[in-house]
Amino acid sequence: VQLQASGGGLVQAGGSLRLSCVISGSILRIGYTGWYRQAPGKQRELVARISSGGDIIYDDSVKGRFTISRDLPKNSVFLQMNSLKPEDTAVYYCNAGVRSFYPYSADEVDYWGQGTLVTVSS
């Protein structure tokens, strides 16, 4: 199973970006999906997450500005980011819990994408 994130780039403060993450491989079932970010010199932190049951949570710093969504038939996860601020600058990582055919996994296994850089200029 592999996660491929894309959509990062350079944007001015107040602008928007849409991140995409495609999950590929011998997928049996996608459970939880989420986006995390890591700014220089800081620890990786949760941005937004959709649980296996569909519940959505956001970090307080992005509530009202970011929207997470997913298209499970297309094995894709998205993060719409509006009203971007310089403090949103970070590498953004997609994350998912996936059951696979091969190697077979009875439970969800945690996978990470390679990250996509978002830079917001003031």
Tell me what the structure shows.
By secondary structure, the chain is mostly beta strands. The protein contains no helices and 11 strands. It has strands at residues 2-6, 9-12, 17-24, 27-38, 45-50, 56-58, 66-71, 76-81, 90-100, 109-112, 116-121. The strands form 2 sheets. Strands 2, 4, 5, 6, 9, 10 and 11 form a 7-stranded mixed β-sheet that branches. A 4-stranded antiparallel β-sheet has the order 1-3-8-7, with no helix packed on it. A hairpin with a 6-residue loop joins strand 4 (27-38) and strand 5 (45-50). The chain is elongated and about 45 Å long. The termini are far apart. The mean pLDDT is 97.
Question: What is the typical, i.e. mean, pLDDT?
Answer: 97
As residue ranges, the low-confidence spans are none
Order of helices and strands: EEEEEEEEEEE
How many H/I helical runs? 0
Task: Label the structural class.
Answer: mainly beta
Strand content: over 45%
Q: What is the share of helical residues?
A: under 10%
Radius of gyration: 14 Å
**Major sheet details:** 7 strands, mixed
**How many beta-strand elements?**
11
What distance lies between the first and last C-alpha atoms, to the nearest angstrom? 37 Å
Characterize this entry briefly:
The chain has 122 residues and is mainly β. Helices cover 0% and strands 58% of the residues. The protein is built from no helices and eleven strands.
Task: Jot down its keywords.
single chain, 122 residues, mainly beta, 7-stranded mixed β-sheet, 4-stranded antiparallel β-sheet
